[in-house]
Write a structure and sequence with these properties.
CATH topology of the largest domain: Rossmann fold
Order of helices and strands: HHEEHEEHEHEHEEHEEEEHHEEEEHEEE
Number of domains: 2
CATH class of the largest domain: Alpha Beta
Strand content: 25-35%
Organism: Thermobifida cellulosilytica TB100
Protein name: Protein-L-isoaspartate O-methyltransferase
Helix content: 25-40%
CATH architecture of the largest domain: 3-Layer(aba) Sandwich
GO biological process, one term: methylation
Number of helices: 10
Structural class: alpha+beta
Main location: cytoplasm
Oligomer: single chain
Keywords: Cytoplasm, Methyltransferase, S-adenosyl-L-methionine, Transferase
Length: about 375
Amino acid sequence: MSGGRRQREGLSMTFEAALRAAGVSDRVAEAFARVPRHPFIPDRIWHRGRPVDRAADPDRWRRLVDTDDAVVTQVDDGAENGPGLPSSSSSAPSIMAAMLDALDVHPGQWVLEIGTGTGWNAALLCELVGDADRVTTVEVDPVLAERARGALEDAGYRTRVVTGDGAAGYPALAPYDRIIATCTVRDVPKAWLAQTRDGGLVVTPWSPQPSGPGGVLARLRVRGDTAEGRFVQGLSFMWLRAQRNRGGTPHDLNATADQIRPIEAGQDLLLDGTVVLPLMLMLPAWRFGMRRSPEGMVIWLSATDSPSWARVYEDRVEQGGPRRLWDELEQAHAWWDQRGRPGVEEFGLTVGARGHTVWLGSPDGPSWRHG
């Protein structure tokens, strides 16, 4: 299918070759070549917390758009005078390509996208399916949905843009061969599994940590009421708004430690993404963050199933509550290290009647329940 105003220029042309070199399938690389990014990006974007307006600085706007980086397209859910927290973006093209490759969509299939955003990914899906009528995309934010609908129509794609809660999917056209989410979830919605054809795929960013700083890309094959598959890679996406959680107050604030002990290089354990991602998969029911203290940066750990907590300084850890979170983290790290430090792509996820279970190697290998 061809969009009405497509131009083979900018990011689409140069990026096609890079995608092929990285091993992305020819069909996905060709879709990027046919569908440029910039027609889907709004005139105002944000870079490093500051707005960049196309009318005021068109060259900078275009340079930011023509990169393999995420582009923030909305802050504070569109509210005025907020703190400037990103609430919608155009994802990094290489991440989009990896997700579309994992989706393995074929011509003529029925596809549901959760999180329309700018509409660019929906346009790419239309190219891969070959029929815009077989692609449905759901966006919770009515302003974003309307803008994406207009961009898609201007580009020649008469696809279905639905304004609603993506957690509910879109049952009117179910079952779908493929469901792809462009937002992180902790609980894969049952509606997505129910609306996927038996043998179909759900591809979604997933994180066991509420409002966690990063997550993994899950590729799940649906069989009956169960979905199962390996993680593809680590990534970071904004949260599905129905599951978005700003975090709440960590349990350690104003708390007196039950235990204080010295440690070596403790903070490094949580600052290295290649280490902390596997630890997140292996250790359920906790979250972490950072704050400044009179002694410098402190990393806090807070349980989500009890009032347990830990504070990690450069030279010591303080702990409180019924769980010794730092001890659990050290034990998980030692176990992972002894097994050769398996990467996230060696882990997988089963979603079913027993909730969410992460496993290593295969579903009958070592496993950890995440609710």
